[in-house]
């Protein structure tokens, strides 16, 4: 069996195993120059998902947001220690604590002190989410984000304590970077990340073409319960991107070989724990030990994960169009192919 055949066998075995328990799944694997993508189940539109099937990648978006941040640092647009207040619209109010300002680094490492969500999710929203996968942020705009920011209190002094995961924080980060660049978030990611890396199917909901919508999977709460889409217009930096297994693998290949891309310095910056940052984080990326960088994602009807072992030249992504993930299976696959 050749190296490529062995890689495909691993991907197929994993996809078939996950596909027995999920509505649909795409498994993508890369080792060195070899790549394999295998789908199982269905997209909810009468087809088996494949390398070109678009899904909501949820919080994997955060590593794109962090790369946008790092690219701006490399270009000299801002610094990691820049207070986020300086990049927001005039009049925007940002909470502080103990005379410490929330910086871009704090937001990208989940050490800002902001709570997980910018809006309190009530019983009605929770029930609609559980029953229909309803977007709990539906109707939540960028203006609502700034209003919530102005009225919130930090749980702790920015930069202290461990990692406290915050969609609120990454929503603010994405909003601030886009405003500073004079673009919306999707446009900024397209121009500064997707085009340089050759990603052709990574976009926000409002950027999708009719042809891309036709290739998009339907999300599901359970195997037979469709879920509503999650555009996340008010929090795009936290989880609004759609993508394909092909694009995610291309993005992961850039993490494995940053010197082969136009974003070398920025990519390397996202892999590092910044000065004063938590050991378990790069910029956006989580660390599993010293060898693995990963991030997963979840919306009303999708669960996703992307993981790399830079020292081994291996990468894995698993994209599921159901609200039941496969993180452990993905990380086990990454270990087997490394």
Key structural traits:
338 residues, alpha+beta, Beta-lactamase, 12 helices, 37% helix, globular, Beta-lactam/transpept-like, AmpC-like, Beta-lactam-related, CubicO group peptidase, beta-lactamase class C family
Short synopsis of the structure:
With about 350 residues, this protein is an alpha+beta fold. It is about 35% helix and about 15% strand.
Walk me through the structure:
- With 338 residues, the protein is of the alpha+beta class.
- It has one domain (3-337): DD-peptidase/beta-lactamase superfamily (Beta-lactamase), CATH 3.40.710.10.
- The protein is 37% helix and 13% strand.
- It contains twelve helices and eight strands.
- The protein has helices at 3-19, 61-75, 104-108, 123-132, 142-151, 167-181, 185-197, 210-214, 236-239, 245-256, 264-271, 327-337, and strands at residues 24-31, 34-41, 55-56, 242-243, 286-288, 292-298, 303-309, 314-320.
- It has a six-stranded antiparallel beta sheet with strand order 2-1-8-7-6-5, sandwiched between helices. A two-stranded antiparallel sheet has the order 3-4.
- A hairpin with a 3-residue loop joins strand 5 (286-288) and strand 6 (292-298).
- Helix 1 (3-19) runs antiparallel to helix 12 (327-337), helix 2 (61-75) crosses helix 6 (167-181) and helix 2 packs across helix 11.
- The chain starts with a helix and ends with a helix.
- The mean pLDDT is 93.
């Amino acid at each position: 069996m050749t190296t490529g055949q062995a890689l495909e066998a691993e991907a197929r075995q994993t996809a078939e195993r996950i596909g027995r328990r999920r509505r649909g799944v795409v498994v993508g694997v890369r080792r060195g120059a070899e790549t394999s993508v295998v789908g199982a189940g269905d997209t909810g539109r009468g087809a088996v998902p494949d390398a070109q099937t678009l899904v909501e990648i949820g919080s994997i978006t955060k590593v794109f947001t962090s790369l946008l941040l790092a690219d701006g640092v490399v270009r000299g647009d801002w610094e990691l220690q820049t207070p986020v207040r300086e990049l927001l619209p005039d009049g925007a109010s940002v909470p502080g604590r103990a005379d410490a300002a929330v910086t871009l680094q704090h937001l990208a490492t989940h050490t800002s002190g902001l709570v997980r969500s910018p809006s309190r999710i009530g019983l009605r929203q929770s029930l609609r989410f559980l029953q229909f996968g309803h977007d709990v942020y539906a109707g939540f705009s960028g203006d609502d984000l700034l209003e919530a920011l102005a009225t919130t209190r930090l749980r702790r002094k920015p930069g202290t304590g461990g990692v406290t995961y915050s969609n609120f924080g990454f929503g603010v980060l994405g909003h601030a970077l886009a405003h500073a660049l004079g673009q919306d978030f999707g446009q900024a990611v397209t121009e500064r990340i997707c085009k340089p890396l050759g990603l052709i199917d990574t976009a926000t909901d409002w950027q999708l073409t009719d042809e891309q919508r036709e290739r998009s999977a339907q999300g599901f709460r359970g195997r037979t319960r469709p879920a509503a889409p999650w555009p996340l217009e008010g929090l795009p930096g936290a989880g609004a991107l759609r993508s394909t297994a092909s694009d995610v693998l291309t993005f992961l290949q850039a993490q494995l070989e940053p010197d082969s891309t136009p974003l070398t310095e920025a990519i390397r910056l996202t892999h590092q724990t910044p000065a004063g940052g938590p050991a378990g984080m790069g910029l956006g990326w989580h660390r599993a030990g010293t060898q693995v960088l990963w991030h997963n994602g979840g919306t009303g009807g999708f669960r996703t994960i992307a993981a790399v072992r830079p020292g081994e030249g291996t990468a894995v992504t698993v994209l599921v169009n159901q609200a039941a993930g496969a993180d452990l299976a993905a990380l086990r696959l990454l270990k087997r192919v490394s």
